[in-house]
Amino acid sequence: MEILRQPRVSLIARPQFLEPPHLPVQWKGESSDGERLAEFAGRLCYMSQHNPAGRTTAEYLGNILKQGHGSVFEHATYVMLIEGISRSCSHELVRHRAGFGFSQLSQRYVDESHAAFVMPPAIQGEGALEQAWERQVAAAQAAYVAAVEQLMTRYASVESAVHRRKMAREAARSVLPNATEVKIVVSANVRAWRTMLELRLGEGAELEIRRMAVACLRVLEGESPALFADFKIYRAEDGGESGRVGFHKV
Question: 0.90 cut: is pTM over it?
Fold first, then answer.
């Protein structure tokens, strides 16, 4: 049994900007494809491809953030593989619908006999709590394995081995805790990512999804810093990392 204490966030897809040759922009400064896509969309609205103010991409997008013209951020989509979060955390995450797409590991099809479990941040560092929690999830996993074995025997008459395993696992999963690890592919446009981050980085957010949001923000900042430049990560009073945004609900 594996115990996980931190999420793992991997960027697996990014925008590719293909500039139309008949509408070239007078670019200034270095930028990612996602940043250029947002700038191009904004400049198209006013046909200002000649860049009359001589702004760099970062300066242009900073002004967009200040003005609150978030619609141009809907064109750039980033896709993440998120691992090491619990099913309770994923249930919070998938509540963000507009602009998001989700593909999550299915406990109905995947054998959870060797599943990992995510220790809640509030339990970490407290020896007695950690030990009690580990005993509880170990007992739940043992109950799952036993239930699968018994159900496979019960459904021995089912000819298809694949269907037999599915029937056993879909019933046995009911004993697994919300701490069971989830792997999930998450796609969202920049405006949707920003909204999720604003809501989930705050000190009032649930601790595990806040930790996940911090990890997502670091990946996105590294990929396209100008699109997330107004976010700041800081150490909260509870000791965990939190974040705030400069321009709300862009």
Answer: yes
State pLDDT tens for residues 209-248: 999 999 999 999 999 999 999 999 999 999 999 999 999 8
Q: How far apart (Å, rounded) are the C-alpha atoms in residues 141 and 184?
A: 21
CA–CA distance, 106 with 9 (Å, rounded to integer): 19
Summary count for the chain: helices (H), strands (E): 7, 8
Which tens digits make up the pLDDT trace of 68-86? Answer: 889 999 999 999 999 999 9
200: annotated active-site residue? yes
Q: Does domain 10-79+183-245 have CATH number 3.30.200.40?
A: no
Active-site option among 43, 191, 200, 210? 200
Whole-number Å distance between alpha carbons of 115 and 210: 23
Query: Is 249's pLDDT higher than 80?
Result: no
Q: Where are the domain boundaries for CATH 3.30.1360.170 in the chain?
A: 10-79+183-245
Q: What pLDDT does 105 receive?
A: 95
